[in-house]
Design brief:
Radius of gyration: 19 Å
Distance between the termini: 28 Å
Strand order of the largest sheet: 13-17-16-15-14
Order of helices and strands: EEEEEEEEEEEEEEEEEEEE
Bound molecules: beta-L-arabinofuranose
Low-confidence stretches: 1-7
Helix content: under 10%
Shape: globular
């Protein structure tokens, strides 16, 4: 395994000293960290990146992950435990490949793992449609047992489940390009649809989705709605506005009664936030949380623990390869007006 503090990765990325934060683990590659506090302890549900001969493409075929492993730690800065395999694609009856960014939730003694994967259909590229599955366990570390079918009416990827103060859970999901959200623009899947976006730069951008979950935490209570991001002018952000429009990696948290909708801008590599007064939005664009990391993707989660707010994110410090990432954590600072201080992951 590669030491987190080595001066210079073998294949020529930035030296360790150039990064604001160091990888949380270096014995496996991890990305898309969804952190939660269960029983006072921090659990991270990341993607488990693996080597593949598949070259980088716009569909993200190089992200060929096959299983999940959960990380845990008592507090930020404490020892990080890497759990055993918590769910393997071979044990998910409906899934063919690509176990992408997961999330987790807890209710009434059961832990729920939400995960996207391609189903067994074939699109114009010979690849399955992304669906979202759910698996359960009595332990936050798993192993998790998957339902036989994906969540009915689920589509696209990057699920993030937020539970409001009244106990109602909402799933935020979706991503354009390889995440296929653009193929669902009419409400029905088009297997021959665009591999990127709708190519309508002067029209409102595609929105990520939000849907209320049923109390069973395994099914949707309604049809998914658009989580609309509004610009400062009160109008929806446009498709051509690549520094502000939604790409993937939804994450929602609540602070001082406001709902923070946070997401990645994909090809411009920012983590952004927008603020609303309802879990359904609309959310008013408020700025960047994180400037671009080393590596193409950026994907995160935000939690409060020990009286501080923490941003979990990932970059490619250990490998300098887009598909072999490592998760990190850094403190997030709010201004008195509720705005977030933008973080630069690279030291100046
Ligand atoms: O890790 C695979 C995909 O890349 C995730 O689902 C996206 O959010 C991006 O990080």
């Amino acid at each position: 395994s590669k030491a987190a503090n080595e001066a210079q990765p073998a294949n020529g990325g930035a030296p360790a000293s150039a990064f604001r934060d160091q990888p949380l683990v270096n014995e496996i590659y991890t990305a898309d960290p969804s952190a939660h506090v269960f029983d006072g302890k921090i659990y991270i549900y990341p993607s488990h990146d693996i080597e593949t001969p598949t070259p980088d493409d716009d569909l993200g075929n190089q992200y060929a992950m096959r299983d999940y492993r959960v990380l845990s730690m008592d507090k930020v800065g404490g020892k990080v435990t890497v759990g055993p395999v918590a769910l393997d694609v071979k044990d998910v009856p409906w899934a063919s490949q690509q176990m992408w960014a997961p999330d987790a939730a807890y209710k009434d003694g059961t832990y729920y793992l939400y995960f996207p994967a391609r189903d067994k259909s074939k699109d114009k590229n010979g690849l399955g449609a992304f669906r979202i599955g759910v698996a359960t366990s009595k332990s936050p570390m798993g192993p998790f047992v998957a339902e036989k079918d994906p969540i009915p009416d689920s589509f696209s990827m990057d699920p993030a489940v937020f539970t409001d103060d009244d106990g109602t859970a909402y799933m935020y999901f979706g991503g354009i390009w390889g995440g296929q959200l653009q193929r669902w623009a009419t409400g029905k899947y088009d297997p021959n649809g665009s591999d990127t976006d709708l190519m309508k730069d002067d029209q409102p951008a595609l929105s990520g989705k939000v849907v209320k979950m049923n109390p069973d935490m395994k099914t949707f209570a309604e049809s998914p709605r658009d989580a609309v991001i509004l610009g400062e002018d009160g109008k929806p952000v446009l498709g051509g506005d690549h520094e502000r429009r939604f790409f993937e990696a939804s994450w929602v948290f609540k602070k001082d009664g406001k709902y923070y909708y946070t997401y990645s801008t994909g090809d411009t590599h920012f983590l952004n936030y927008a603020i609303g007064t309802s879990p359904y939005g609309p959310f008013k664009y408020a700025g960047h949380i994180l400037k671009p990391v080393q590596g193409w993707t950026t994907h995160h989660s935000i939690i409060q623990h020990d009286g501080k707010w923490w941003l979990f994110y990932a970059d490619t410090q250990l490998s300098n390869k887009n598909h072999l990432r490592n998760v990190k954590v850094t403190e997030l600072t709010f201004n008195p007006d509720g705005s977030i201080q933008t973080i630069d992951p690279m030291k100046a």
